[in-house]
Amino acid sequence: MKNKESNKTTNSRRRYDEEFKSSVIQMMENGQSIAEVSQAMGIGESLLYRWKAALKTSDSVEVDEEKEALRRRVKQLELERDILKKALAIFSRAT
């Protein structure tokens, strides 16, 4: 029969905050290999690969959101431009 206390330690998971994850990813981006970072920080390599992939995915989502916002802004500006062109044509005929 397993000791309950030893079972608690094996089932507990370490939690890492976003600041820590960012600093670890920064280490990898500065040229350290994943194996070096893993060993230095005491974190499994597979976890580091997941953090790196998640960061890439979140960056991609942010870029997509920014592109969509820019598209909406361009549409709005084109509409305003067209309205001003029509107003200019109307006022030009009136004189």
Explain what the structure shows.
With about 100 residues, the chain is an all-alpha fold. It has a single domain (about 15-95), classed as Arc Repressor Mutant, subunit A (Orthogonal Bundle). The protein has four helices and no strands. The protein has helices at about 5-10, 20-30, 35-40, 45-95.
Describe this structure in a few short sentences:
Helix content is 82%, strand content 0%. The chain has 95 residues and is mostly helical. It has a single domain, classed as Orthogonal Bundle (Arc Repressor Mutant, subunit A), CATH 1.10.10.
Tally of DSSP helical segments: 4
Strand content: under 5%
Number of separate structural domains: 1
Mean pLDDT figure: 87
Beginning-to-end CA distance, first to last residue:
99 Å
CATH class designation: Mainly Alpha
Helical percent range? Answer: over 70%
Stretches with pLDDT under 50, minimum 5 residues: none
Q: How do the helices and strands follow one another from N- to C-terminus?
A: HHHH
Derived structural class:
mainly alpha
CATH level-3 fold name: Arc Repressor Mutant, subunit A
Radius of gyration: 27 Å
Number of β-strand runs: 0
Write down the oligomeric state: single chain
Described by strand count, sense and barrel closure, the largest sheet is: none
The best one-word shape is rod-shaped
CATH architectural designation: Orthogonal Bundle
